[in-house]
């Protein structure tokens, strides 16, 4: 039997990981409580370590079936190092924590020369610097191909960690910026030839930049956590549709997304039009970008907006949480299931979306 | 240019990681100090997090060019899950810390069915249980081949973390048990046919068991840390020769190893004899087992021994630290460089050792 990943996580993994949240994990006079373990299904595990802060820790591997844009030469070794760090730090940011370090696993093939290896390290270093943290170690060695994984650590005042659960009906659903750029890049570039120069160079550059310098939303997560303004939060690294569905399942609420309020990047719109798919569907589909999706009580919206503005940050209200545990998109009074293809492992879903287009 | 891994770590990595130990890494009123970063080259990074304990964290990838015994069907999916957890927890144990959790990265190929996947998870779970900790999350998904990495976290009373540096001339060099079994297994099994049944079945079983149920020396590490008895400590996952050399470089001392005092497992001796290599050389060569190598001041030896015995644990004194930064083996008054092949990436060194034998 070959289940897909969500099934494996739900059925096979939970057999081993259930019930661990709340456990005392230290011994020997050292009091440590695992307040959110693997069974909590948040972006990170959370420890209360008897100090005036909680510890948040998560691991991400960043290369699945293909890191296609790197193989095509569109992303450099520096870029993928940068992405590795950003992807891991994003998980800490999504919990509202302040990053305190990154561990990196870098396994390289014989073909990667010293210059390339140095570039991977330099990219990791630059991202850590940009997000205010340090690469504190990990594992370096060879393998048949490039393998990159990381672990990010962060700290947060106790009780302030942002979780995926917590949204209440009536809370406003928000995102820190447009989603889908990274997914659009993966949909577009492998088929670039067939579009014969019809995507403007500036749009191509914008797609690539989304991969080259992704931004982990550390400052946004901290703002949302400290008051706290957010009742629930998660990064959009599985795409917006999957993220909304996960917030729904975690919180036992539904979501109504107002279609015209979802920001769509012009480059995503241009790719969608070229591929003859609906722009909103492409914007919500599998895309490993690092916006934060979060919920805010209506009464806190103005203060939250003010805090963001004061820090030069922004977010968009795109809908609200509802009683009934289902996610819908509304437009001119009619509703439908959320458009787009949610991320699942084992399938190149974004290609399915593109393949369903008459153009592809 | 294609440098080997030690060169890359020394020259390319240090460019980015030097000088970080001692840095304050928290912000936002959260006081966190990185007391040992990547530049310290210990088994783990160490944080002081303003609580009555230090945090110890390290990552290990467990499959380099080949996990040959698994590919040969000699190790099960359960076994490699178990090994992954043991390898990571060993790094925490080597610092004297109490493990508080493991994050695992499990990427699997399409060929790994649900039963196999479940076995990997079960092996990780069993090892975490055996070493008194929990698998608190990580990353699961697919890839072209099985990829396993982990991150272990541990806590230790402040100031009690065991480091690789710290040995002083005159300190006794000790190990918790015989080394080299895992390396001997990797040297033997791929060439098994050529030995035509000359290795007893019990020896074969012992070699395999060393891979199937490796023991992270958590209790030993705790004992060595709490007094502290050990002035320096590290696990032997690179093999005993490499470990002694690393303790030497970290501490700026030399080591004199008394050849007849190095315990050699009968199965390692049997493989060495079959392959016509020196048993001590095989015992000290690259082998990813998890004994602890440590140094103890002569005045503390009796008390340390007593503590170990009271806990049903054991260790062997195999030499002493010297003034001059060089490692030598002595036998009947004559000395020579440490025998064996120290572990380096990019080469299958243990095969080089075996290949130099007329039998192979």
Automatic annotation (TrEMBL), chains A, B:
Positions that bind substrate: 343
Annotated positions binding Mg(2+) 4: 43, 91
GO biological process: thiamine biosynthetic process; thiamine diphosphate biosynthetic process
Keywords: ATP-binding, Kinase, Magnesium, Metal-binding, Nucleotide-binding, Thiamine biosynthesis, Transferase
Record domain PurM-like C-terminal: where: 168-330
Annotated PurM-like N-terminal domain residues: 42-155
Top-level taxon: Bacteria
Protein EC: 2.7.4.16
Catalytic activities: thiamine phosphate + ATP = thiamine diphosphate + ADP
Amino-acid positions noted as binding Mg(2+) 3 in the UniProt annotation, renumbered to this chain: 43, 91, 235
UniProt: Mg(2+) 2 binding residues: 60, 91
Residues noted as binding ATP in the record, renumbered to the chain: 138-139, 164, 237
Binding site for Mg(2+) 1: 59-60, 139
A molecular function GO annotation: ATP binding
Binding site for Mg(2+) 5: 238
InterPro entries: PurM-like_C_dom, PurM-like_C_sf, PurM-like_N, PurM-like_N_sf, ThiL-like
Family statement drawn from the similarity comment of this UniProt entry: Belongs to the thiamine-monophosphate kinase family.
Function: Catalyzes the ATP-dependent phosphorylation of thiamine-monophosphate (TMP) to form thiamine-pyrophosphate (TPP), the active form of vitamin B1.
Record protein name field: Thiamine-monophosphate kinase
Organism for this UniProt entry: Streptomyces lydicus
Gene assigned in the entry: thiL
């Amino acid at each position: 039997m070959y289940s897909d990943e969500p099934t494996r996580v739900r059925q096979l993994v939970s057999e081993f990981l259930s019930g661990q949240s709340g456990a005392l994990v230290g011994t020997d006079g050292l009091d440590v409580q695992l307040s959110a373990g693997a069974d909590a299904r948040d972006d990170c595990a959370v420890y209360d370590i008897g100090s005036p802060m909680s510890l948040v820790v998560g691991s991400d591997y960043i290369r699945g079936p293909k890191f296609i844009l790197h193989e095509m030469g569109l992303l450099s070794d520096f870029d993928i190092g940068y992405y590795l760090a950003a992807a891991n730090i994003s998980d800490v940011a999504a919990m509202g924590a302040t990053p305190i370090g990154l561990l990196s696993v870098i396994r390289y093939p014989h073909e990667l020369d010293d210059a390339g290896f140095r570039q991977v390290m330099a990219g990791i270093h630059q991202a850590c610097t940009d997000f205010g943290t340090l690469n504190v170690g990990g594992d370096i060695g060879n393998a048949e191909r490039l393998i990159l994984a990381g672990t990010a650590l962060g700290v947060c005042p106790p009780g302030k960690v942002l979780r995926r659960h917590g949204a209440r009906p009536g809370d406003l659903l928000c995102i820190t910026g447009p989603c889908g750029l990274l997914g659009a890049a993966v949909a577009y570039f492998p088929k670039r030839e067939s579009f014969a120069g019809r995507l403007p160079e500036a749009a191509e550059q914008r797609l690539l930049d989304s991969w080259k310098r992704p931004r982990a939303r550390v400052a946004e997560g901290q703002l949302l956590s400290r008051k706290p303004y957010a009742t629930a939060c998660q990064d959009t690294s599985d795409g917006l549709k999957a993220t909304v569905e996960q917030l729904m399942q975690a919180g036992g609420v539904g979501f109504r997304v107002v279609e015209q309020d979802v920001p769509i990047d012009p480059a995503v719109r241009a790719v969608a039009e070229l591929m003859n798919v609906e722009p909103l569907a492409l914007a919500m589909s599998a895309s490993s970008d690092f916006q934060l999706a979060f919920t805010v009580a209506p009464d806190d919206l103005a203060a939250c907006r003010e805090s963001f503005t004061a820090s030069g940050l922004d977010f968009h209200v795109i809908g609200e949480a509802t009683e009934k545990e289902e996610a819908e998109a509304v437009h001119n009074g009619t509703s439908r299931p959320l458009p787009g293809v949610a991320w699942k492992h084992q399938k190149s879903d974004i290609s399915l979306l593109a393949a369903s287009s008459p153009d592809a």
